[in-house]
From TrEMBL:
Localization of this protein: Membrane
Gene designation: Clrn1
Matches recorded under InterPro entries: Clarin
Name of the protein described by the UniProt record: CLRN1 protein
Segments traversing the membrane: 97-123, 135-155, 189-209
Signal sequence annotation: 1-27
Family: Belongs to the clarin family.
Lineage: Eukaryota, Metazoa, Chordata, Craniata, Vertebrata
PANTHER family: CLARIN, CLARIN-1
GO-annotated biological processes: equilibrioception; sensory perception of sound
Keyword terms: Membrane, Signal, Transmembrane, Transmembrane helix
GO CC terms, sorted: membrane
Keyword Transmembrane applies: yes
Mode of membrane association: Multi-pass membrane protein
Domain of life: Eukaryota
Amino acid sequence: MPAQHKKLLFCTAGVLSFACALGTAAAVGSQLWVRGTILCTTGALLVNASGPELHKFIGDIQYGLFSGQRVRQCGLGGRPFQFSFFPDLLKIIPASIHVSVILFCTVLIVFALVGAGFFMFNAFGSPYETLHGPVGLYLWSFIACSCGCLIMILFSSEVKIHHLSEKIANFKEGSFTFKTHSEQFANSFWTILVCSLVHFLNALLIRFAGFEFPFSKSKDSGTITGAVDLMY
């Protein structure tokens, strides 16, 4: 492939990696990872609510990695409540999983920036043989893509398996019990998915530029090298 085309591909991959770093950073600080509704079962059972009456006992909840908001409805109107994961909710959430999600988000941002820098270096500089060359580009893209996948898996398990929304809804509730009525992943969660796909696309761009995968080596070149060594 001509050098100009390779520069264009590397510049495109570098811009995409930088955009992913910015998108992940914005997602980390956002409260829109999960959005849903919560049902006040205690109030609904007391008045035997059903049909249209049930909406008076359905509140809203949304949260991210650090904070969120819930609006509880128990038949007397909505009452908003702001909460923070650190240190308020540490005793009721799976703290190890939650901290791991934040850690992998940080790693994803760092390696997305590193990948963007090396893509630009390979486009306009003289790439080295190891970390600055194809091996390094595959490595940064693979690490960033893997971190994105781990973030989605861990956070999904935290929400679905450990019932994170329900634990947050019942935080500091003595006489009322809330159940998750509905929940769905919001924009910031899907931003991580898009970033993971972009880093996978970057690896394909490297391959499209004409570089072989680091673990694939031609047998003929090894044979020729061995024959040349025997001559000396």
